[in-house]
């Protein structure tokens, strides 16, 4: 496990690892991370990127004084090439900003091998289930349908498959008898908002080895 993954350098509070956070939606996870980084850490968010110009998450970046950019799909490009063309735009933003670690936080696009291979080891995701259970876009719905009594969240390095790659941490969350998708999602998110910053601390201070 872990071959080919080049992890980020160890940051310090004086010279934190420079993060870009990629969002598609409201960005409550991004907001939690930005709050956490108000106290000096070994990582700092220097760029927020959304896959649209109106994602709610962009607002959190602006409020925190972080550079934000919306990179929508280039609709003028033929559909067969659009995904990679979009990722090239994204990649150019990350490189231009001298980003060292890409943090997916509710980023709803499946990344192609082209992008993943460029960031492998420096590309991290949080998923709202105990992977490998319930990958995909409907983790809570799937967990409720399966009738499990415990679910949770997983922080992992991203590889070329969906919701897969070396697991850095997981935390369990009980499923309550009257949970619906929304209630479960909210409870899991509260745990995510603590877990993700903590894992980034470990990853950005040289405490993770594969
Ligand atoms: C989180 O539950 C995360 O695990 C998943 O997408 C959700 C993002 O929520 N990948 P938010 O946009 O941060 O509120």
**Overall residue-averaged pLDDT value:** 96
Task: Please outline the major beta sheet.
Answer: 7 strands, mixed
Q: What is the molecular shape?
A: globular
What is the second-level CATH architecture of the largest domain?
3-Layer(aba) Sandwich
| CATH class division of the largest domain | Alpha Beta
CATH topology of the largest domain: Rossmann fold
Give the count of helical stretches: 6
* Strand numbers in spatial order across the main sheet: 3-2-1-4-5-6-7
Number of domains: 2
Order of helices and strands: EHEHEHEHEHEEH
User: Please, what is the CATH homologous superfamily of the largest domain?
Assistant: Formyl transferase, N-terminal domain
Describe the protein's architecture and organization:
By secondary structure, the chain is an alpha/beta fold. It folds into two domains: 106 residues, Formyl transferase, N-terminal domain (Rossmann fold, 3-Layer(aba) Sandwich), CATH 3.40.50; 85 residues, Formyl transferase, N-terminal domain (Rossmann fold, 3-Layer(aba) Sandwich), CATH 3.40.50. The protein contains six helices and seven strands. The radius of gyration is 17 Å and the shape is globular. The model has no long low-confidence stretch (mean pLDDT 96).
């Amino acid at each position: 496990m872990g071959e080919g993954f080049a992890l980020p350098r160890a940051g310090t509070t004086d010279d934190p690892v420079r993060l870009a956070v990629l969002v598609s939606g409201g960005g409550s996870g991004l907001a939690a991370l930005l709050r956490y980084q108000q106290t000096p850490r070994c990582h700092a968010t220097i760029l927020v990127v959304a896959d649209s110009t109106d994602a709610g998450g962009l607002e959190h970046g602006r409020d925190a004084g972080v550079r934000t950019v919306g990179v929508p799909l280039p609709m003028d490009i033929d559909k067969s090439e659009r995904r990679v063309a979009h990722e090239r735009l994204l990649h150019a933003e990350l490189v231009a900003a001298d980003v060292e670690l890409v943090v997916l936080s509710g980023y709803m696009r499946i990344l192609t091998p082209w992008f993943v291979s460029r960031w492998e080891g420096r590309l991290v995701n949080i998923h709202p289930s105990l992977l490998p259970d319930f990958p995909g876009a409907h983790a809570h719905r799937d967990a409720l349908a399966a009738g499990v009594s415990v679910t949770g969240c997983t922080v992992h390095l991203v590889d070329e498959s969906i919701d897969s790659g070396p697991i850095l941490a997981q935390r369990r969350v009980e499923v309550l008898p009257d949970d619906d998708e929304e209630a479960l999602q909210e409870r899991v998110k509260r745990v995510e908002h603590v877990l993700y910053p903590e894992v980034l601390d470990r990853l950005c201070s040289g405490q993770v080895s594969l």
